[in-house]
Amino acid sequence: MGGTSNLPPGFHFFPTDEELIVHFLHRKASLLPCQPDIVPTVLLNCYDPWELNDKALQAGNQWYFFSHATQSKATPSGYWSSICADEMVKSGGCNVGLKKTLVFSIGEPSEGIETNWIMHEYHLLDGRNRSISSTSASSSRKLHRNKGHSNTESNNWVICRVFDSTCGSQVSFHDEGMELSCLDEVFLSLDDYDEVSLSSN
């Protein structure tokens, strides 16, 4: 599948931090089906960020993919390193995950050159099933028994968002807590139309 998606024409993949944790990462770790099933799995250590085309799900200038959490963040040309404190992700007033922000540097860790590539790496918290949904947790345990997966193996999943910070990104709406709904965008476009009409009179 790579960078293509099965979304209908006109629909764009623009999830919030909460949606990435609850609707995608939680279901992936619990062996539950993801709908829509469009986010691929990528081995983070095998690729540099500019090689994610046709491997991760591309949405504008952002790339999304599942991976396994690893201590080493080294890639063929460099490494990812944390640049700020972890952020808690909430859903319904409960903490459901962690958001780590990392920057990509080229070269060896001792003398790497920092780039403009940024990655948000999302992790589930321990006891995530109780926090998100006791019903899906029950289904998860059944699937684990049937397929022979351990809780440790499931907890190892992360979901990542990678983007070049110099390109301009819709990510800023999430970072600043200023998410726009479809209606917000319609109203803003109407305001712009009114301004144009007034200036022409």
TrEMBL record:
Keywords: DNA-binding, Nucleus, Transcription, Transcription regulation. Pfam families: NAM (PF02365). GO terms for molecular function: DNA binding. Residues 7-165 form the NAC domain. GO terms for biological process: regulation of DNA-templated transcription; system development. InterPro entries: NAC-dom, NAC_dom_sf. PANTHER family: NAC TRANSCRIPTION FACTOR 56 (PTHR31719), OS04G0437000 PROTEIN (PTHR31719:SF251). This is NAC domain-containing protein.
